[in-house]
Amino acid sequence: MNSRRRIIRLRDAAQVDVQLIGGKAAKLAQLTQAGFRVPDGFCITTLAYEAFLAQGGLVDLVRMELGRKPLESMRWEEIWDTALRIRSGFAAQSISQVLRQEISEALQELGEGASLAVRSSAPGEDAAQRSFAGLHESVVGVRGLDEVVEAVKIVWASLWSDAALLYRKELSLDPVNSRMAVLVQRLIEEDRSGVAFARDPRGIEEDQMIVEAVPGPCSDLVDGAVDPDRWLLARDSGSVISFQSGDREQGPDGQPILEDRDLGKIHSTVMRIEALYSWPPDLEWTGRASRFTVLQARPITTVSSETEDRRAWYLTLRPSVQRLRKLRTRVADTLIPELERLGQRWGKERLQDYDDRALARAIEERAAEVVAWKKTYWDEFIPFAHGVRQLGIFYNDAVHPEDPYEFIGLLKGEKMLAMVRNKGLERLAGMLRRHDALRSGVRQALEGDAGSDPSEILNHLPEVPGSDLFRREVAALLERHLDVTYQGERLSGRPDLILSTLIQMASRPAAADPASNTQDRQMHQVEELERKLLDAVGLKRHPEAKEIIATARLSWRLRDDDNILIGRLEAELLRAVRIGIERLVAAGRLDQAAHVSQAAAPIVAAALRDPSGGMIGLPEVPEPDVDTERRKSGESPRQLIGQPAAPGMVTGLCRCIRSAEDLGRFQAGEVLVCDAIEPTMTHLVLLAGAVVERRGGMLIHGAIIARELGIPCVNGVARATDVLEDGDILTVDGYLGIVTVGPPEFDLERLSKHA
After folding, report:
1. Tens-digit pLDDT profile for residues 112-165
2. Torsion angle, CA of 412/418/421/422, rounded to 10 degrees?
3. Residue 200: what are its φ and ψ, rounded to 5°?
4. CB 3.0-4.6 Å disulfide test: which of 24, 202, 263, 668 passes with 687?
5. Using CA atoms, how far apart are residues 646 and 421, in angstroms rounded to an integer?
6. Domains of the chain, with CATH numbers?
7. Are 574 and 598 in contact (CB under 8 A)?
C-alpha cells in the first residue's frame, strides 16, 4: 500500500503504520478485519495534517503561542486562551482543494447525506498506560462535505486544546513533530449504548467486569448527561453479580434497559477482544445483541496516586452542554438568590445587641456558611463560568473572526452588581465635580487627624452645602454595594478609602470617562454580532445558538456577581468577629491592637463562650509577599513579558495594589499593578492609565474592563507585584504583552545625547 496516501478506508487500514492513522483508527481497523461489527468509515492520515500546517504557517502560530510563557507557570485561563487562539487559526485556514476532493470521494462511498462522526485518532492515543480519553475532540451528526471539512479542522486543532496542553509532556506535544489523524465514520444511532470494562478499574485484580448502559447515544454516558444502569458481571461466566438502576427522569424505574442476551453479547465481545490484544479492554459500544456495534476499544488505564494532580480538576471546568444547562438552572434560580438572601439577612442583624453566647453562635454560623459557599463556588460557580468559553468556541468555529475575542461583544450590557456600584460612585464623583466647597470638605476630612478612626470619617465632613445629601449617599452606597472584603478588609468599614477614590474620579471631567458609551450603541453592537452568528450557523441551528448566547450572558453576569455576594458574607463574618474582638479587648482578655481576620473567628467565638477564660492570642496576618532582594539591591528588571490582553501603549507611574490601604492611594492615570482585578475593586480601573496583572487570561475582569475602556492591559506577568514598586516608570504595551520598567527608549536616547 502507498505509505504517502492521505485517505485510507478503515477496512484497508489493519496493516497500516499507527503513526499514519493513529491509535484509535488502527484498533478499529484490526477489529474490522477480525470480524467485529464496526461502523464503516475512512481515516484522514497524519500526512494531511502535516500538509495543512505547512501551507498556512500554523507551525509558527503554535510555536509563538507556546513560547509566550512556560506552560507550567500558566494559569487555567491562560491555557484556555492559548488553545482558543490556536483553534481560531486552524478554523480560519482553508483545506486545500486536492484534499477536499479526496474527502469528497471517500464520503460518496459512505452514502449521500449520511450522518457521520468525525473523531480524533492521534498516534499514541488509546495506548496502554496513556489513553488520555476525552482530551481530543469528536464532532457527531455531521453531514456533507462542508461540515466534514470544518469538523476535521476542529479535530486537528484539538491536538492543542486546553485539555491536551495540560498533558503536554505525557503526550510529547511539539509544534514540529506532533501529528493528528482523523477518523470519519457512519454515525450508528441505536436505542441502547454504553461502556464495558473487562476488569473493574477500581480494583484491577478482581475477577469481574463492569457494564454501563444508557438509552440513546454513548455520548450521553461519556458526557455525564444521563445516569447509566450498571452491572457487575463475573468474568468467567458473564453471570450478573449485582445490578444498580440509573437515576433517570424517563423510563420504568428500576427496570434494566438491557436483557440477559444483551449482557451475554457484551461479555463475549469483551473477552474476544481481550484474547485478540492480550490486554483487558475499555469498550464503547452501541446496539442490542443482534446489532451490537463496537465504537472504540482501548486498554484500561489507571492513574496511580503518585501521579495525581490538579489537572483532573481543571478538566471538570469544561462541563458538557447538558451539565451547563443544569448548572444554569441551579445557579440562577437557586444558588444566587439564596446567597443574596443570606447576605441581606446577615446585614440586618443587630449583632451589637446580642449577648456573648448569641454572638459566638453568630460567628460560628457565619464561618461555617462562608466555608460552605466557597466550596459551592469551586464546585458549581467556577464550572458555570465555562458558559462564556463555550460561546467563544461556538462563535469562532462558525464565524471565523479576525479577532478571536470578538464574541465578547455579545456580552456587553449585562447588568452586573459591580456596574451598579460603579455608576453609584460616578454619581457621587459628579457631586464633587459640581461643588467645589464639598470637594474641599472631603479633602479636609481625608487630611485630618491620622490617628482618628477611619470608619468615622463621614462624621467629620465639614458642614457645607450638599454635605448632608453626600454623606447619606455615601453611607447608602457603602451599605448596599461595598459591604464586601478586599484582602481581608471590610470596605464598608473604610469610607476613607472610597472617599479617596471619589476625589480622584472627580479630578477627571465626566465627558472624558471612556465608560460613557451610550446604551443604544452597545445594543446595536450586540445585535449586529448576534445576527452575524445566526447567519453563520444557519436557520436550523438558531435555537442552539440562542441557548448558548443566553447561557453565556448569564454565566458572564453571575461569574462577577458571585464573587461580590460571597465577599459580602465574608464582610459580615468580619463584622461579627470585630464586635467580638471589641468585647474581649474591653474585658482585658485581648491586646488593643488585635487584627480582625476570618482566621480569628473560631478563637473569638470560643473565648466569648468562656467568660471566665484568660488572655487569648489571635493569628497574625502575614505581610504581602514582596521581592526583598530587589529592595536591598535597588535593581529592577528592564522588561517583563506577559499576555497582550487589551491593545494600546501608555507610560505612567506604577501603583501596586497589595492591600486595602493601597486602594485609597491610587491616583488617576497611574498604572494599576496587582495580583488580579477582583470584582470588589473594578472601580479603580476607571481611573487607571493601564493595567498589569499577575493572573493571566483574556476573560478575567481586568482584561475585559480594560478592553471596554480602551486602556492597555498586560496580564500573566509573573511576580508582577513582587518585582515592581510604587513610583516605577512603566511603559505598558498591550499590543505585544510587554511591560518596560524605566524611562521609554526615546527618553533614554534623548538624555544620553544631552549628557
Report:
1. 788 999 999 988 766 555 555 667 888 999 999 999 999 999 999 999 988 888
2. -60
3. -65, 115
4. 668
5. 23
6. 7-186 (3.30.1490.20), 192-299 (3.30.470.20), 320-620 (no CATH), 628-753 (3.50.30.10)
7. yes
